[in-house]
Amino acid sequence: MQNWIGGVEKLDVLKRVPIKEQEPIERIHNFDEVCLGYTPDEAAREAQRCLECKNAPCVKGCPVEVKIPEFIRLIKEKKFKESYLKILETNLLPAICGRVCPQETQCEQNCVRGIKGEPIAIGKLERFVADWFRQNCEFEFSKPQPNGRKVAIIGSGPAGLSCASSLAKMGYEVTIFEAFHKLGGVLYYGIPEFRLPKEVVEWEIENLKKMGVEFRTNMIFGKTFDLEDLKQEGFDAVFISSGAGLPNFLNIEGELLNGIYSANEFLTRINLMKAYKFPEYDTPIKLGKKVGVIGGGNVAMDAARVARRLGSDVYILYRRTEAEMPARKEEIMHAKEEGIKIVELVSPVRFIGDESGHVRALELVKMKLSDPDSSGRRSVKPVDGSNFVFEADNFIVAIGQSPNPLVKKAIPDLELNPNGSIKVDENLMTNIEGVFAGGDIVTGAATVILAMGMGKKAAESIDRYLNAKKHENL
Amino acid sequence: MNEIVIKQNLAPNVWLMGIYSPQVAKKAKPGQFVILRVTENGERIPLTIADFDNEKGIVYIIFQVVGKTTSLLSQLNPGDRIIDFVGPLGMPYEHSPEDKDYLFIAGGLGIPAIFSKVKMLHSEGKNIDIIIGGRSKENIFFEDELKKYCNNLYISTNDGSYGKKGFVTDILKELLESGRRYDEIFAVGPVPMMKAVVDITKRFSIKTLVSLNPIMVDGTGMCGGCRVKIGNEVKFACVDGPIFNGFEVDFDGLMKRNSYYQDVENISYKEHKCKIGLGE
Ligand SMILES: Cc1cc2nc3c(=O)[nH]c(=O)nc-3n(C[C@H](O)[C@H](O)[C@H](O)COP(=O)(O)OP(=O)(O)OC[C@H]3O[C@@H](n4cnc5c(N)ncnc54)[C@H](O)[C@@H]3O)c2cc1C
Ligand SMILES: Cc1cc2nc3c(=O)[nH]c(=O)nc-3n(C[C@H](O)[C@H](O)[C@H](O)COP(=O)(O)OP(=O)(O)OC[C@H]3O[C@@H](n4cnc5c(N)ncnc54)[C@H](O)[C@@H]3O)c2cc1C
Ligand code: SF4
Ligand code: FES
C-alpha cells in the first residue's frame, strides 16, 4: 500500500483521481451509463487521499450518516466486500445513492480536503464498492426469526424500499404494493438509464426479495385496494410512500397543444416503456428537430439529455441563471458537454400552435435578477416589454411535481398540509393510528437519500408503535 | 391471475373477453376502465370494464382491433394470461336517485361503456332507452343483451343494411323533436359522434354525459398525457374522468390530441402484421 504515495505514480493529494466517462460525442448516441466508474486501483488511490478525520465532518453532511472514513479505509486496504458491508450498516442502496445523491451539497461539501483542494470523491467511492460487490459477490442474508407481524408498504420508491429492508431485518413480514408494473418508483420511471442503469435498481430489489420482502405490482392504493382490505388481510401497520408523482403544468395558454409533454410523461415513456427503442417496444415517442425544456432541476436535465439522445437540438429555458439551478452541478456540466444550450432568465407566457393543433413556439418574457434578500436568495421579475418568441417543435414542462392526490381520496379523514402533502408527527405517523408516511409524499419533491432516511425512521417508529401496542394488550 | 376465461367474437374485429381478476372485479363500478399490457415489450392501453362478476372474480372487456396491442390481445385464447391488468381506474358513473328517464347512445365501440350502467339502472327500476349504431349490419352486436335491460332499443347503420339508415344522432333528433324527454343522456363513441350528440341535446337542455378516450400512459394521474379541457379547466381524464359533462368538453381539442401518434402507430402495426405474416 505504502508505495502508492511517493511511489511509481505520485498522488496529488489536492486533486481527485480522475474518473472515466463516455465521451460526449459518443454518449449522445446511446443510453448507456455516462460515468464508467473507478477501477479497483483508481478507487484505492482516491481513498488514499482521505485523512480519516476523527470528527469526520463528512458524516454529518450525510442524511443517513454513512460511516464514511471507515468504509474509505477499507477501500485503501482493498477490502472491498467489508467496505460494502460497512456502508450497508446505514445505507441500503449504495449503488444508487453513489450515483444520484447530490454529494456536492452533502458529505463532500463538508470534506476537510475540500478546504484547499478537491473534496474526496465520496459518492464515486461508494458507488465503486457497491458495483464491485454486485459483480463479485453473492448477496447473503440470514433471515431473522419472524416476529409474526405484517406491515404493508404503499409504493416501491426509495422510501418504501428502505422501510421494507429495515423492517425485514427486524423480522417483520413485509409486502410492498406498487401501482406500476415495474418496481423502484422514480428510480425506475424517472431517472434515465444513462445516469442509473436499471439493472442496478433491479439487483437491489432482488436482494430485498431474498430478505423475504414480497412485492405486488399493478396494485393501486385507493383503486385496487384500500385500508379496509389491508386490515382484513391482517396487516398491523401501513407505511405510505407513494411519492410526488403529479406533474405541475404552467397553466398558460396553449398547454394542450400536441408536442407538449410533462417531463413525467416524457420520462415515463422513455424509462418505463422504453419508447426510445420503438418499434421494438410498442410505446411511441415523437420529438422534432428542436426541443425546449422548461425548468432547471434534475428532472429538466434528465429530460433534456434524453431529448438530445433522441437526436434533437435541445434548449433549457430557465427563469433564473445557471448559478441558481437546483439540478446537480455534475448533471448541468454533463448536459452542457452534450451540446445542450441553456437560455437563462426567461419565463413562459403562452404556447403558440398551428392549424393542426401542434405547438410551434413559446412566447417568453425576459427576467431580471434582484439583489439577494436576507436569506441570500435572489428573486426574479419580468422585464416589461421584453417578450419574444422562441420557436421549437416540442416542449417539455419540468417545473416540479406535487403529491399524488389518490391517497387522500382513499382515506378521506387523512390530514394533509396546505400543499397537499401528508401531515405526520415526529414519529412519521399520520393522524390515522397505525398509518405512517414518508418520502416525497410528506416532504414534496426532494431527494433519494432523504426518502430513504424517512423510510428507515418510519420502520423504527412502526416497530416501537407495535411493541407498545403489544404491551397494552397484555 | 389475469387468465382469460372467456373469449367470443361479437363482430368483425370485435372481441369479448372475460378475465379472471378478483381484485379488479371486487372494486369495479360502471364507468371505470382497466389498463393492460399484453407482452413484455408492450404498450399500456386503456379498455373499459364492460361488465364484472364479483362472485366469480371475472372482468369483461369488449375491444376492437385497431392497432398492434389490440391485435395481439385478440390472438390470446382462454387459458392464456395477460401480463399486466390493473384497475379499476377512473371515476365511476354516478347518477342521481331522483332521475327516472335515461337515454344511452353508443356508437361504434361505445357499448362496453354503457352496458354495466344500463344493467344497474334497470335493476333500480329506471326507464331506459338505448340507441346503438354502426357502419353496417355486421357491425351491430349485443342487441339481444341490451334488449333485456331497456324499454326501447333503436338501431342505426350508416348504409341502412339494418335498423334505420343514418347515424345515431338522426334517431336522437327524431326522438327529441317528437317530444320525448329524458332526465339524463349518456353518449359514448367516436369523438365526432359525441360532439354531434351534444350539439343536439344542448338545444333541448338535457343533461348529457360523455365518456372520453384520450391517449393514456399510466392511467393514474402521473403524466398528464390524457389532459382534456373541460369548461375553463384542464382535467386529467384518467383520474377526473373519463366521464364528463358533455356541454363543457372541448371536443375539437381532444380530436387533435388523439391524432398525434397516428403515423407512428401505423409503423408499429405494419411491422407487426408483416411479422405475423398478414403482410400488406
Ligand atoms: C426525473 C427525476 C430525476 C431525479 N433525480 C434525482 C437525483 O439525481 N438525486 C436525488 O437525490 N433525487 C432525484 N430525484 C428525486 C427522487 O427521485 C425522489 O425524491 C425520490 O424518488 C422519492 O422517493 P419516494 O419513495 O418518496 O417516491 P417515489 O420514488 O416517487 O416512489 C413512489 C412509488 O409509489 C407508487 N405509487 C404512487 N401512488 C400509488 C398508489 N396509490 N398505490 C400504489 N403505489 C403508488 C409510484 O408508482 C412509485 O413507484 C429525481 C426525481 C425525478 C422525477
Ligand atoms: C378510458 C378509455 C376506455 C376505452 N375503452 C375501450 C373499449 O372498451 N374498447 C375498445 O375497443 N377501445 C377502447 N378504448 C380505446 C383503446 O384504448 C384503443 O383502441 C387502443 O389503445 C388501441 O391500441 P392499439 O395498440 O391496438 O392501437 P394503436 O396502434 O395504439 O392505435 C391504432 C389507432 O387507434 C387510435 N387510437 C389509439 N389510442 C386511442 C384512444 N385512446 N382513443 C381513440 N383512438 C385511439 C390511434 O390514433 C391509431 O389510429 C378506450 C380508450 C380509453 C381512453
Ligand atoms: S472529511 Fe473528507 S478527508 Fe475527512 S474523513 Fe471525511 S472524506 Fe475523509
Ligand atoms: S394517463 Fe397519465 S395522467 Fe392520465
TrEMBL record, chain A:
It comes from the Bacteria. This is Glutamate synthase (NADPH), homotetrameric. Coiled coil: none annotated. Gene3D superfamilies: Alpha-helical ferredoxin, FAD/NAD(P)-binding domain. Residues 150-455 form the FAD/NAD(P)-binding domain. Residues 27-136 form the Dihydroprymidine dehydrogenase domain. NCBIfam families: gltA (TIGR01316). GO terms for molecular function: iron-sulfur cluster binding; oxidoreductase activity. Pfam families: Fer4_20 (PF14691), Pyr_redox_2 (PF07992). InterPro entries: DPD_II, FAD/NAD-bd_sf, FAD/NAD-binding_dom, Helical_ferredxn, SudA-like.
